[in-house]
Amino acid sequence: MVRDHDDPGPAPADPLRHHGDVDTEPGLLDLAVNVQGDAPPRWLRDRLTAAVDDLAAYPSGAHDAAAREAVAGRHGRDAADVLVLAGSAEGFAMLPRLHPTRAAVVHPGFTEPEAVLRDAGVPVVRVLTDAATGHRLDPAAVPADADLVVVGNPTNPTGVAHPADTLRALARPGRVLVVDEAFADAVPGEPESLAGDASVPGLLVLRSLTKTWALAGLRAGYALAAPDLLARLVVGRPHWPVGTLVLEAVAACSEPGAVALAADAAARLAGWRTGQAAALAAVPGVHVQPGVAPYLLLTLPPGTGPVVRARLRAGGIAVRRGDTFPGLGPDHVRVAVREPRVAALLAAALREALADVTEAAA
After folding, report:
1. Yes or no: is domain 42-258 CATH 3.40.1370.10?
2. Confidence of residue 265 (pLDDT cuts 50, 70, 90)
3. CATH placement of domain 15-39+264-361
4. CA distance linking residue 92 with residue 89, whole number of Å
5. CA-to-CA dists, residue 175 to 85, 109, 146, 347, angstroms
6. Is 135 in contact with 155 (CB distance < 8 Å)?
């Protein structure tokens, strides 16, 4: 179907199931998805290629143990505190196995946890942060009777990193506190990460390798929690739940050399983010939400969002729509942090699109 130049397309049938990959397609400059790079680095591809020779055998306990030991060493935890996942999304899919009676999900945030919980019939209350306070989380806003709380850190799409002590304040007996740290390794020093904190009762940290290592197609991640909590999560999980290549990737990306490379990439991204945020904030009418993540939440002038998205797409640039995130609206868009050359292209295209929309409305 051919759409009008300014037609943003139909609204998603299920906003909670809408993700950035839906907003892009081959041939577009992809700023909708936050994966860094077009492919895993050569050293990682070599590790995965070598592991192909093991695919005739079922994934072994030795493979799983090696992956868990590497993650444990990376975060200063016991191997018993580690569960390798088929992407952090599998961790969200496991949450209904905890049988929560009332879940609280902090928004704007990644929508998959709420979608999973609602599909399982779990009552969900949304805790909305406010742009007026920089989308900072107030622990008092979380209902006291919520026995499952889900929060991203840094939060997607705002890019805000909540102080670790703020998140610790959410823990209490009988409550599982789920912290989605999918983008934590893209923040220099990971200062607010709780991945290495085994002292917080009921804490479940989910981590992803997708973003930093360009492994979205492999589905690799892990959970960190007390062994008794992990045991509740895996009830009913099929045998051999993750493949040999996933286990190899988790082990490889958790080794000291890889962690050092990720830290270098995080520092580079932070510099790019500063420049990209400044370039976009210089476009008349655009507000850039302060944050630390490898993406930026933009607020466009009232009433311009859908048309601007359509015009950027017509010009070859894909951005992530914001109105599928609870608490945001059609004039919000999220853009990935990219190298300065790409950031300059985006700023110029956004300036032109907004100028055209403003002129057409005059």
Report:
1. no
2. very high
3. 3.90.1150.10
4. 5
5. 22, 20, 7, 44
6. yes
